[in-house]
Specification:
Elements (H helix, E strand, L loop, with lengths): L35 E7 L4 H15 L4 E5 L11 H15 L2 E4 L12 H14 L1 E7 L7 H16 L18 E5 L13 E4 L4 H9 L10 H16 L4 E6 L19
Parallel strand pairs: 1-2, 1-4, 2-3, 4-5
Antiparallel strand pairs: 5-7, 6-7
Helix pairs in contact: 1-5, 2-5, 3-4
Length: 267
């Protein structure tokens, strides 16, 4: 399968050689129209790597820019201090070739779906201007922060488009190409949404290395092995060695049949 189906509008290109776009002081990412290919939100320092790290590795290996926004420092966790988990997140993002920033939505295990938080997330979307956004699914699961963040990112992607939002007037409106959700655990997988499958068999090693960078979280359970097994089982269903699923928030639109990937069934 290709790194992902193309939607309309197409993923944004990198700035041309010789261009010098303004860069954000917070992220180091270019700020301007279609500056960033993929923006990924995570509730905790390890969510992105465990849930969609293989997909990120595919994108960065292809030369596309990826930026992480982690919305807590894991301060409510049993294992690892916020300082340690922050360092682990930075190392993991570096291994995947992504940039990283942290956002404050009230702290680990204290997320609330409030307008002020949605506006803060919309402000990030306007600032970095991504083509695509990934966030946790809105399905209730083992950690309330996951689905609450998914809902707030969904709403923020909409607010980022509206020119009349008073708190967002510092940056021009921005419409993303598509919002996809990822499932941190099988329990978070939406049953009513047809997923898009990404073949990650060529990037299993960098994905694995990014997961084990979160050493503090592997003290309780081998989460990295569980996610590798999950990708392997899904891949076997699709005829590849490893795959991960994304769940589109909106219908997908393709330029032509040539834009589609191969089928997961062998007829």
């Amino acid at each position: 399968m290709k790194p992902g189906p193309k939607s309309s509008p197409k993923p944004p290109p990198h700035p041309a050689a010789g261009d010098h776009p303004r860069k954000s002081a917070e992220t180091g990412q270019p700020v301007g129209v279609n500056a960033l290919h993929l923006l990924v939100f995570g509730a905790h320092p390890d969510d992105i790597e465990f849930a969609c790290g293989g997909i990120v590795a595919r994108e960065t290996r292809a030369g596309r820019s990826v930026h992480f926004v982690v919305c807590s420092r894991g301060e409510a966790g049993t294992h690892g201090t916020p300082t340690q988990r922050t360092a682990e997140a930075r190392q993991a993002a570096k291994l995947l070739g992504a940039s990283l920033e942290f956002a404050d939505l009230g702290g680990d295990a204290h997320f609330e779906e409030r307008a002020v938080h949605v506006v803060a997330l919309a402000r990030i979307i306007r600032r970095v201007r991504p083509g695509f956004v990934l966030a946790p699914t809105t399905v209730e699961n083992q950690h309330p922060d996951h689905y609450k963040l998914g809902r707030m990112v969904r709403d923020a992607a909409r607010l980022a488009r509206y020119g009349g939002v008073r708190e967002l007037r510092r940056d021009p409106p921005h419409a993303i190409g598509q919002l996809f959700f990822y499932a941190v655990t099988p329990e978070a997988e939406p049953r009513e949404v047809t997923p898009v499958f990404i073949d990650v068999c060529d990037v299993m090693e960098p994905w694995y290395n990014a997961m084990i960078a979160h050493r503090s979280q592997l003290k309780s359970r081998p989460y990295h092995l569980l996610q590798m097994a999950r990708a392997s089982v899904l891949g076997q269903r699709l005829g590849v060695h490893g795959a991960m699923a994304l769940y589109p928030n909106d219908p997908l639109v393709f330029d032509s049949l040539a834009s589609l990937g191969r089928s997961g069934r062998r007829y």
